[in-house]
Amino acid sequence: MLVPKGFGMKPRFLALALVIPVAGVLFAGTADAATTLGASAAEQGRYFGTAVAAYKLSDTTYANLLRTEFNSVTPENEMKWDATEPSQGTFSYGSADQIVNLAKSQGKKVRGHALAWHSQQPPWAQSLSGTALRNAMVNHVTQVATHYKGQIDSWDVVNEAFADGGSGARRDSNLQRTGNDWIEVAFRAARAADPAAKLCYNDYNTDGQNAKSNAVYAMVQDFKARGVPIDCVGFQSHFNAQSPLPADYQANLQRFANLGVDVQITELDIEGSGTAQANSYAAVVRACLAVTRCNGITVWGIRDSDSWRASGTPLLFDGSGNKKPAYTATLTALNGGTTPTTPPTTTPPTTTPPDPGAGCTASITLNQWNGGFVATVRVTAGSTALSGWTVGVTLPSGAAVTNTWNAQASGTSFSNVGYNGTVAAGGSTEFGFQGTGTGPSATPTCAAR
Ligand code: G3I
């Protein structure tokens, strides 16, 4: 009875089921609903991302949720002016590169945030003005966008340049005081440096139609009319009791899209809990899905404890990494109202892996690109629990380790850190490292400590 089942399916699967009857059973009932945020969004031609802090990547709960649930990342602070150019002309990309390389190794998009902003400027820039500041800003945009050329899906080129309240004016700032054209100059510099990246203007309190969003709208309209390169508008969407999800959210996204730019929800968080919070998240997702040019949604952190507004519990996972009702509502909305079924449990392998005895074994999974790699190493305990381990890796000549997570590196020898030294008999844990050159091909050694 394949055809009657097909009538309950989403249209894209209906066609497939009719052409390939044998696959019908795969799509019966609700089994076609994807079971992670990123996969569900991808089915809708969107991304679902999160802000990421580099220093949290060694937290396994955080890293696992990031790996499995999201298909886009935004460095939360690591690409800002104070982080990337701490002294004038000296650029520092370590933490941002860590996030970008992890995202690339996991096939995720990267949203760059933020090239030009009145806040989080390094002290040297805060003390500049006039032509010196304008030139420094252009150089900064050019250098950072060039460093990440080809790796960024969308850049927040200019962030939060309009004033709050009813004035519709530009926000006063040192950048604004260099001249009203500073925004378009920043966009032109970004386009010249990375022609493939989408260039966004990003702001908050612009989520509904109001004086501030009207002013941004007029700027985008003017930029489009004059050929200033702008591709997208980011709506931060930080919601709480004082600033709730506006009733005209979707209509506001749509009016910007009608100007010929993409729209993106860039920093979503909604303070609250339970059903009310869940309903608001679902409404945001439905609004984005209803606007063809809405590319995707980024939440501003993974767990409530990761949020800049942690006390408002505004995110999709609780402090322990458990899914909240808001998560389920978001996933269901991404799936067009379909509640996903529990993913099938993995069938255990029919062959027993070789017994490593009382020690441990290690295996490597590599993600390589021309000139670099990310290695994920799995340490498996033998018949006795481990209380510490050391893995030895052989690197081809010319290769070097540049960054390690979930382990302490000493050259090409990696030892456990405080939280992952204890591994139950037969159990396993993972760590990773990133490098330049060609990644290791030999099986690593593993010793219990
Ligand atoms: O890294 C230092 C640490 O060494 C120090 O011990 C600690 C003490 O306060 O501060 C740490 O830096 C903090 C940083 O977050 C990392 O946690 C800064 O003080 C703090 O100011 C910074 O806050 C960030 C904020 O932007 C700054 O404006 C938040 O993490 C970040 O979520 C927030 O993000 C902004 C978006 O960029 C733009 N839209 C609004 C959004 C929320 O404010």
UniProtKB/TrEMBL annotation:
Its EC number is 3.2.1.8. Residues 333-355 are annotated as: Disordered. Keywords: Carbohydrate metabolism, Glycosidase, Hydrolase, Polysaccharide degradation, Signal, Xylan degradation. Residues 341-355 have a biased composition (Pro residues). Gene3D superfamilies: 2.60.40.290, Glycosidases. Pfam families: CBM_2, Glyco_hydro_10. Residues 353-449 form the CBM2 domain. It catalyses: Endohydrolysis of (1->4)-beta-D-xylosidic linkages in xylans. Residues 31-333 form the GH10 domain. The keyword Signal applies. The active site is at residue 267. Residues 1-33 form the signal peptide. It comes from the Bacteria. Belongs to the glycosyl hydrolase 10 (cellulase F) family. This is Beta-xylanase. It comes from Paractinoplanes deccanensis. The lineage of its organism: Bacteria, Bacillati, Actinomycetota, Actinomycetes, Micromonosporales.
